[in-house]
Amino acid sequence: MAGRLLRVGTFLSTGPIGTSEALRRLPATPAVPAQARERCLELLARLEQVEFVHDLNLDRTHIRGGRVYHGELCLNELDLYVWYAQIDRGPGSYHIEALRTLSHDTRVVIAPESFATGVDKFRSHLLLERAGVRVPDTVLLHRGNVAAAEPVLAEWGRALLKPRGGYFGHGVLLIEDYATLRDVADYVTAAAPGAADETLLLERFYDNDLADWVSVTLVGDSVMYGYRKRPSRWAAMPGGTAKVYDATGSGGEVDLCEVPAAHEELALRAQKALGAQIIGFDMILHQGAPIIVDENTFPGLYPEFFRAAGKDLGFELFRVIARAVDECRTSTLAVRHR
């Protein structure tokens, strides 16, 4: 006997959605390249016992009575909603609220809680550390209690001050002494007294060579490839150090590279801990071992790198969705047979 027809909604973005200032600073490139999107949708059309509703843009939804509507369609009545888009990820984000509301009744891929953790450097580092994944030592402070960092800096020597939701290296500052941190905190408080984020995130600085920096991209539960930023994307910091920095946020300036076995093992463990279907991890090499220094919910999905690695992004996205469909079908059958 044929199973029940599953209803699945999708939204694979061709660009950022929303109106926040942060989104306007993102690259204009699509989250999913158009060719990969079309390839994925073509493969999805072959799945049996599934009714797809595509292009369910979160920007065109509203929430009423704890249910998310796209026009007349109630998304909470779907079995599965799959999305991948550059969305507003700041405090009070409507997109995240809509996804969280929807997830009470409908399975959502990418899971909103996993996504919200992935875009917050403190929360993602904390989760990975608790899972035994090597990340930098971190300290989170309230701006009014910056003195608590003085003994930490005395122990560490140097630290990086990072925006919790930052990207492209913007706002990353090398802190070599407590006085600098104190004055930066005072400046931020005076210049932006109403800022929503009252925290300061300090990350221990580890000596490393940017020539060993590697970013690893994963889709599903597999490593797709690794890449390095070219020296044009390095920016000098004090004391002969440097950071990866993209002033214009235009992306690119990358070269495909091998993923050492230790980096691959670390990336797979981190992906499993975060539960993220599409993720990237930036790693440095310190004393011969990799350390994850950044989690990227929107990693570089470079079509030329997929081709060079013998992979097909459209097919990999299809695999993610098809697996979610199978899991939905299995859970639906389990409920019916209780």
From TrEMBL:
Database matches in PROSITE patterns: ATP_GRASP
Gene Ontology, cellular component aspect: cytoplasm
GO molecular function: ATP binding; metal ion binding; ribosomal S6-glutamic acid ligase activity
Classification via InterPro entries: ATP-grasp, ATP-grasp_RimK-type
Highest taxon listed in the record's lineage: Bacteria
Domain ATP-grasp: 125-326
Keywords: ATP-binding, Nucleotide-binding
GO terms under biological process: SOS response
Record keyword ATP-binding present: yes
Name assigned to this protein: ATP-grasp domain-containing protein
